[in-house]
Amino acid sequence: MKLSILAVIQLSLAFLLVVAAPFGRSGENVAPIKVTIKAPQSDKVATALPPVDPEPKVTALGSASMSFAVNAEQGRIANSIRTVFQIDGAVHVPSVPAGKAEAAGKGGRAGTGTAKTAGKGTSLVRVWSVNGVQITQTLEAIPGRAKGAGQNRALDVMLAKYTIENREAVPHVVAMSIRGQTLPNTLGGPHFTTPSTPNKVLDAVTLTGKTLPDYVQLSQQPPMNPSGLTTFFTLKLGNNLIGPDEFVCTSLSASLGNVQQWPVPVVPANGQPGCALNWSARKIPGKSKVEFAFAYGLSVASRLDGEGNVSLSLGGSFEPGKTFEVMAVVSDPAPSQTLTIELPEGMKLTEGRDIQPVPVPMADSLGSVVLWKGRVERLGEFPLRVHNSNGTIETRVVSVARE
Predict the structure, then answer these.
(1) pTM higher than the cut 0.85
(2) Does residue 62 share a domain with residue 45?
(3) 110 and 15 co-located in one domain
(4) What span, in angstroms and rounded, lies between the C-alpha atoms of 383 and 317?
(5) Do 141 and 243 sit in the same domain of this protein?
(6) Per the structure, how many domains does the chain have?
(7) Rounded CA separation 375/80 (Å)
(8) 30/109 same-domain check
(9) For the segment 271-313, what is each residue's pLDDT rounded down to a tens digit?
(10) Greater confidence, 387 or 360?
């Protein structure tokens, strides 16, 4: 279902509907129905997300040029994820000759860095400077989404964050490209798929704009074969972190063969797929900074600003005996996410199951849509609630009375 912005944004937390009622049986005028709908702030209950197991399931191994590999319990899930910058039109591969590189933590040799345990998981911080621009790469294990209801989240995703700081007064223009060799020892793979096209292997294609998904799935086996290891690139993390503008499915030789090449050619994989995550050029004013980020691991990363958030809209008629509609729009839905509508006495559900799974959003939509229809049976005040399986509750108090 394609949605317009007007269809999903509520203009107010309280609004008034006045519905003219028909004449009475004896011909006298009957007072019109007044419907008031409010969203009480006190009823917006949010419970905690599933807890996180403290032991990291992925680690990053740094090498020169801000490259890194990712290991998991199953073995290595990324041989080489390389970072390339374009600063003021010139291509730079971070290294000691290009500027100043240093390692945080135990002080390994310049350009490599050492891993340490800090905060929520294993982290690695490396700093590189060139021409007045300082770039800090932070690699940290973060929680992925829970695999199912009642399960804990695991630290099975590696967040890669790049803080790009312009230390000069004049602006600089910075773009970034991440080129990856992932899921090594995979015959003919990895196979790239998206949430909206789970059974279509992507090859020689650029995902951008409306076709750029929240995440891309990588499988050792073709998508119709459930065996083998599966990993994910999470492209949209929230929390003011800028995700890539493009995800390029190409060949391994195109993505890693010549790191100085800009942009990465989009060519058929021919049995050896590679990929590139591209950030378009951005002007960074003097004395300011931006943060680019993506994540890679065994699951889709939990959004840093919450996931599966619901926007609730009510429509139709709340006059007794007529039909009203409830539309829930879910941004960035989580796997196996469900919504449950709770109608009080005096309201009756006429269409849609009370518990509904949240569907995968279409590529050109603003989110996933869940719909219900119901009927008011009498005058009164009715707290209508939609329970989100992520722990939140959206409440609307519907008051139906005669004026």
Answers:
(1) no
(2) no
(3) no
(4) 16
(5) yes
(6) 2
(7) 58
(8) no
(9) 899 999 999 999 999 999 999 999 999 999 987 766 667 889 9
(10) 387
Residue partners of 196: CB distance under 8 A and separation at least 6: 213, 360, 361, 362, 363
CATH value at residue 392: 2.60.40.10
Q: Which residue, of 297, 325, 344, is where some domain finishes? A: 297
Is residue 327 pLDDT above 90, yes or no?
yes
Q: Whole-angstrom Cα distance, residue 274 to residue 301?
A: 21
Measured between alpha carbons, how far is 77 from 358 in angstroms, rounded to an integer?
A: 30
Q: Which two tokens stand for residue 99?
A: 């500027």
Give the CATH number of the domain where residue 106 resides: 2.70.98
Whole-Å CA distances, 33 to 13, 17, 284: 20, 8, 56
Interval 39-88: pLDDT, tens: 876 554 444 567 888 899 999 988 877 899 999 998 999 998 999 999 99
At residue 94, does pLDDT exceed 80? yes
- The Cα–Cα gap between 132 and 280 comes to 20
261: which residues sit within 8 A by CB, 6+ positions away?
Answer: none
**What is the three-state SS of the chain?**
CCCCHHHHCCCCCEEEEEECCCCCCCCCCCCCEEEEEECCHHHCCECCCCCECCCCCEEEEECHHHCEEEEECCEEEEEEEEEEEEECCEEECCCHHHCEEEECCCCCCCCCCCCEEECCEEEEEEEEEECCEEEEEEEEEECECCCCCCCCECCCEEEEEEEEEECCCCCEEEEEEEEEEECCCCCCCCEEEECCEEEEEECCEEEEHHHCCCEEEEECCCCCCCCCCEEEEECCCCCCCECCCEEEEEEHHHHHCCCCCCCCCCCCCCCCEEEEEEEEEEEECCCEEEEEEEEEECCCECCCCCCCEEEEEEEECCCCCCEEEEEEEEECCCCCCEEEEECCCCEEEEECCCEEECCCCCCCCCCEEEEEEEEECCCEEEEEEEEECCCEEEEEEEEEEEC
CA 317 to CA 153: how far, in whole Å? 42
∠ CA 41-45-51, nearest 5°, is 145
